[in-house]
What does this fold into?
Amino acid sequence: MPERPQDPAPTRDWFVLTEETVGSGDQKRWSLTEIRSFFSHGEALAFADDTARTYQPRHPSSPRNRRVFRVGEDIWITYVEGAMQTFHFRVSVARSADA
It folds into this structure.
């Protein structure tokens, strides 16, 4: 069906944010490393859940085990054990404040 000129353009108001440790040694820092946009909250939730389970963080380089925790309706924390250290990353669903 053709769009009508008066219909607003669809917007991608929902986002999946991935935060993790980047850098090494004394230069380690927490950083927002990925932002993905979606048309609906449901699409964003499904992608976030999958990301928490499958995303390969920068650290550790040799992951051995992973545990996923859903700490809120829209937030996951994934704990990744490596050969020498453990790391975690956070996946969140957010809505644009500009929406």
Summary: The chain is about 15% helix and 45% strand. The longest strand covers residues 29-38.
